[in-house]
Design brief:
The first copy, chain A, is of the alpha/beta class and 316 residues long. Chain A contains 10 helices and 12 strands. A 5-stranded mixed beta sheet of chain A has the order 3-2-1-4-7. A 5-stranded mixed beta sheet of chain A has the order 10-9-8-11-12, with helices on both faces. In chain A, α9 links the parallel β11 and β12. The two termini of chain A are 18 Å apart.
Chain lengths: 316, 316
């Protein structure tokens, strides 16, 4: 039997998972991300944790195909990390650095693209090789997979779809300084922003008027309880979401759109709502694109990271 | 020396070009596209023309690496054409069909994607392997190239970017039935539509008031002559164009955007105008994306078609 590791480096913890070559997750754990001193401990800590795991589980090093890594910043195909601000990393080659520390092959990618690859392979897209992952959390992000490969982009910014303009007439600025980004309407903070606007501008009764602080979850809960104002707010959210996803899909024409992130915990109503408006905005040739919920949660990055190294191993 | 053919099948003519392996166009000609009887003559006519060329020029068949073909409709990677309405074609495998008629390897793709590949390789993008081609003609279309490969999409609709929604508040319908598609503002007909709206709603003097019929070219000419109203109309066109291209680019993060189609004959002012608004809408990580004009004109399809078969030949 052969095995490999998938590593998802976050700003506070590093998730490490151990897989067999069928992609079965056999074991997973976390270590803290020590970002002090230019993040110089991060890779040695990961290497030590992996080598300890191999030793304690009596694996042979030659049965380990390598380590896939998701990094929260731009990484090019050759493994060059280009400034990863939340890890205090500058420019260096992570394939060489982690390879030297472990004696194992390493293949790294951007964390959002790697998560998309995970959902494509073993998650919501269930093996589809052409998909879009859109994550609606505190912000909006995403990743694009074409022919089974994550799309990185020349500047490592492919799939940075949270700041796609969906409303050219917006008056309030986004955190990025632009106006009318999808993040202003479809992130958790965007849903709350829209809800507050509705509550301020309208007289209609709503259970949301009693909520302090008002949360994204409260809006979805109220809509589930048939609160009319909450339902109208979400119609607007779904409208923007559908328009946004149609814009992304006319570029790459995927088989499946996977919705992830905290907002997507709203589940089927969100899926149905976004799809209803997607159908209004999508060019007819792509109208059969399917929608699915992300299913790997916080493990998506580890799955996708392992898939990176698995693909490299299989291609020789 | 080895050679190959690039074939661009259009609704009225088929363009055929003969290349050496460096991509130098050695000869080109056209034959009529006979679409009667389910388009059954089209491939035999192409085959006869190519075989005649090989014979008359004393080429050896073994020195011809094959034929690349651009088809005005969806084609999958295996060569299956899926209904090509303007050729009256149904579903069949063009690799097998044209291969049997010529005894040569065949590789086909969608014409818009193939034109993008041509501009990526030998045209405006000048060898860049990651680019977006946007064509502003009677309609708006495009093609996406990632890592030197045209992106087809699961339904053959990748790069069908003309119906991306740029104005969710538009009241007039697009020809596609949706509202606010980029084609309504940035195609030749879209520019004329916007110009007519400005002329009807405003009192301002303009040389455009004397133009019947009003054309897209007249609007650009008037703006070049510093006609204030024409300049304002084009500012609006560039604004939509910049927003649109920023939306496309946040998905794939290319190195270059190439602008083609009849409207792009306006040249540098159009390039500068679109880029100015692009900078307003693009996510900062992709802000160094370059803009260029398409440079192959009607030959883009033949170049890209030949590049398809060349890549297949080089990959064995």
């Amino acid at each position: 039997m052969k095995y490999g590791f998938g590593v998802d480096i976050g700003g506070t913890t590093v998730k490490i998972a151990f897989f067999d070559l069928d992609g079965k997750l056999l074991s997973k754990w976390e270590i803290p991300t020590v970002i002090e001193n230019g993040g110089c401990r991060i890779l040695p800590d990961i290497a030590a944790s992996i080598l300890q795991y191999i030793r304690e589980n009596n694996c042979k090093q030659e049965d380990v195909i390598g380590i896939g890594v998701g990094v929260p910043g731009p990484v090019d195909d050759g493994g060059t990390v280009n400034c990863c601000h939340n890890l205090n990393w500058g420019v260096f080659n992570i394939h060489a650095a982690l390879g030297e520390l472990t004696g194992l092959p390493v293949k790294a990618g951007n964390d959002a693209n790697v998560a998309a690859l995970g959902e494509a392979w073993k998650g919501g897209a269930n093996g589809c090789e052409n998909m879009v992952l859109a994550t609606f959390g505190t912000g909006v992000g995403g990743g694009i997979v074409i022919n089974g490969q994550p799309v990185n982009g020349v500047h490592g910014a492919a799939g940075e779809i949270g700041h796609l303009t969906v409303n050219r007439y917006e008056q309030e600025p986004c955190t990025c300084g632009k106006y009318g980004c999808v993040e202003q309407y479809c992130s958790a903070t965007g849903v709350v922003r829209l809800a507050k606007k509705h509550l301020a501008l309208r007289d209609r009764e709503s259970v949301l008027r009693e909520q302090t602080p008002l949360t994204c979850k409260a809006v979805f809960d109220a809509a589930n309880q048939k609160d009319a104002l909450a339902m109208e707010i979400l119609e607007q959210v779904y409208d923007y979401m559908g328009q946004f996803l149609a814009s992304v899909c006319c570029v790459t024409d995927p088989e499946v759109v996977v919705l992830g992130g905290g907002v997507s915990r709203a589940g089927q109503p969100l899926l149905d709502g976004a799809k209803r408006y997607f159908d209004k905005y999508i060019f007819h040739a792509s109208s059969t694109i399917r929608f699915a919920l992300a299913s790997l949660g916080n493990d998506a990055g580890a799955y996708g990271a392992f898939k990176l190294i698995l693909t490299q191993y299989q291609n020789g």
